[in-house]
Amino acid sequence: MKIKDVTNYIEELAPLAYAEDFDNVGLLVGNYQTEVKGVLVTLDTLEETVDEAIAKNCNLIISFHPIIFSGLKKLNGNSYVEKAVLKAIKNDIAIYATHTALDNSNKGVSAKICEVLGLQNTKVLIPKKGLVKKLTTYIPKDYLEKIRQALFEAKAGNIGNYDHCSFTNIGEVTFKGNENSNPVLGKKGELQKEEEIQLTITFEQKNEAAILEALFENHPYEEVAYEITTTENVHQNIGMGMIGELEKPLEEKDFLVYLKKTMQTDCVRYSNLLHKKIHRVAVLGGSGSFAISNAIKEKADAYVSADFKYHDFFKAENKILLADIGHYESEQFTKRLLVDYLTKKFSNFAIVLSEKSTNPIYYI
Question: In the chain, how many H helices and how many E strands?
Answer without folding.
Answer: 11, 15
